[in-house]
Amino acid sequence: MGLLQSKPCARDIWLAFKDLCLVSPLSGSTTRIAVVILALFYPLQVYRRKQRTTHIRGPQSPGWVFGFAKTMLDSTATTELYERWAKEYGPVYKVPGVFGQFRVILWDPKAISHFFARDTWLYNQTPFNKIVVQTTIGRGVLWADGESHKRQRKALNPAFTAAVIRNLTSVFHDAAHKVTIAWDNEIELNQGTHCAVIDVQQWMNHISLDSVGIAVLSHDFGALDGNDSDVGHILNAFGSSTSFSSNLLILAQNFPFILKLPLPVIRFSLKFRLIIGKICHETLSRTRKENETGGAEQRDKSCLGLLSEGYGENAGLTPQEVLDEARVLLLAGFETTAGNWALVELAQNPGIQRKLRDECLEFGQTPSYDDLTNKLPYLDAVVNEVLRLHAPLKEIPRLAMQDDVIPLSEPLRTAAGNFMENVCIPKGTVIVIPVAALNCSVSMWGPDAKVFKPSRWFEGDEGMLGAREPLHGYRHLMTFGDGARMCLGRLFALAEFKAVLFVLVRKFVFEMDSPGVQIVDSSGSLPRPRAVGSAEAGSVPLRVRRYEV
User: Fold this and answer.
1) DSSP H helix total and E strand total for the chain
2) What is d(CA 291, CA 286) in angstroms, rounded to the nearest whole number?
3) What is the Cα–Cα distance from 278 to 281, expressed in whole angstroms?
């Protein structure tokens, strides 16, 4: 099949023939002639489209049934393969998948910039992603494309400005201080060793749940106080779930109707929607009553509260869309991968940990949002490096809704041996941006791209900076995406990340529980860190002790 998709062409021809029949009834002979003409026209159209399509190179498929689909599920292997293939086949290449179908990988910075400039319009969510998002969190901003996405995004923007996040920074500090009290108590119970082995994954989940609950929903889940909640259980299960077999996942990506079956992961998603919907509905009702009674002191300053103040014609969102957006924000805000990996990297790099602690102790006071943003450069560098090496989203797949000509920053050698300065992509092609691999690319970040090195953010690597200059994402990283779908909550995520790390690194020293323990990405829905050999998926045990001058 290659890159050519013939279904849209056949549909267009059939529609043209139907319109012709509707204009005037055709006799039998005329109908036969029309059918013959269309039958001849069809292969001509296929040929012309095939001629316009750039025949790009790519690795040979290891098998017709699955291709490289199973290999692509291993994020570590995929990151290495994407870069190796880019060197071998050029900055745009195709990777064979299920039943001979191909996905086109964009590695060229100019091509990637072109892609993001047309995201949600020319490039839409794949059918698989559409169904997954709708089932889990509804038809919110993550589900929408085109005009619907633009409208929802416009309505959400005011809830995530720097001014709003500035008022929420104290929520993040409070959550972090609750953790220091709990960890102090655990260390106190181990007076002989003056330290405790703590599963930091669990505690970072608690921080995220309570912080996002208060900041987004104006609802305190009380996870840091030891309270269990259905939302916490559902989010943890969703993040670490491996009940979806790899074969079924691969097939569902190509045959999305499989997601209509009563699978365990689908039941989880539906339960999540019901629970969050109930909480959001209660919050909306409370906010409306407070607004009716008046009083600036009574205003709900949460993100959902700001949204609910003028939903409908003024905000551009229906009540159902407000609920769907709340689900999006809660799930996105609960994602704790970066914070977990930060503590792991600091434990594995004690020199970097000491340098970060010295900066935070020297700063002294509890930092405001502006302090976290502008006055703690090494904290900023550590956070950026964690985001670079440990992006929670490994790749961004999209479906081309129309033919497109993608420009390149350097000529590409085609399968025929010709060199092209652009690539012609037909409608129906699946395009993939390999986020994690680009963040660790030697061609963009230098020979030490795989090394955790915060100092790179102070060094003037002009050559490497020029290579990634066309990427307009946050600090030229792909972690938050780019274009119309660039992460709406990035200021929220960065403020929470920095505030929590500032508090914890001043108070505690982090060490690996065992010198040779290996930490890898788990295979759940969210690629969280996991200690190799750990019985519990997503468990990250670190040795924690109080910092003493």
Assistant:
1) 21, 12
2) 9
3) 5
